[in-house]
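Title: [Solved] Spore photoproduct lyase family protein 3D structure

Original question kept below for reference.
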Amino acid sequence: MLDVREVYAEPAALESPRGRQIMARLPGVRVTEVDSHWRIPSLHGNDGNIGRWVRIKTETLVLGVKRTLATRPNGRSADWIAPGPSNGCAMACAYCYVPRRKGFANPITLFTNIEAIVAHIRRHIRAQGPKPEPNQCDPSAWVYDIGENGDCSVDALVSDNTADLVAAFRTLPTAKASFATKFVNPDLLALDPQGRTRVRFSVMPPDDARLLDIRTSPVPDRIAAAADFLDAGYEVHFNLSPVVLRPGWQRDWAGLLDHLDDVLPARVKEQAAAEVIMLTHNQSLHEVNLGWHPRAEELLWQPTVQETKRSQNGALNVRYDHEIKAQSLSRLRQLIAEHAPWLRIRYAF
Ligand code: SF4
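Solution (posted by the thread starter after getting help):
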């Protein structure tokens, strides 16, 4: 997954305890100091990098200090989106929204001021008090998404940021951390979350994943890991996402649900819940993908069934036509009821 050969780092990040710890594990790696982890001209906005999209993710790491620490309300997957410990990812899902703000390369940026991030989250949780009533996020805990802009399982290969967050939530009885992942990292099994971290394994039919989920753990491996994670103290949910419409999608999602039903033990099923998320895409990412993985775009870019919407930052986002989306979600709910009736849907959109 990672074979780090170059690090771009803000000086303050290099000097921090977390930065020093990360660099101690990367002896001899070339370091280039940068003023800002957001502005690295040779990485971001350099369209010569499209052809090196995956190689940059393997070989480059960025270290930065997260300056704005803010927790945002969410209300769908989680109650709150916490300031994440990273931005960027070593995997290369063709539909990933994380690179949208970064231009042409999106390696992992690790934020080294993890103590400040944890302190901010603690303060935010304390200020909420106990959760007053159950909602779709959780019956009793405030849920904080800690991995909005990356994959915490992969981050844990190179940094203790994920471990620090799991440890912090262990001591916060009114709250729970939550992150989605497509990578099975057995190191996480040793973190002792004591039920205060929810892992959401993202799944989709394996044929789609082979084309779209580049560099991730195979879907059957993610499903097979669920019981180990539960036994290690995590809550284990599933993200059925993204749902990509194509000929045969209903048959293949039914097959995936049958597989979940066949292989998951009862103790996983009893506590499982799912989010269902239809594909959204983006014109700029479409253009980037045409440069390195055009076959994925045959699935992702389907103007006859998609509509565009300009977002607040001017980007042109693409999603399934309203009617088609509503019908597909309803069909998927039906398939879940038939093939995996134990799988509670927390939300679908
Ligand atoms: S695992 Fe998540 S963050 Fe990483 S490339 Fe895939 S969608 Fe993006």
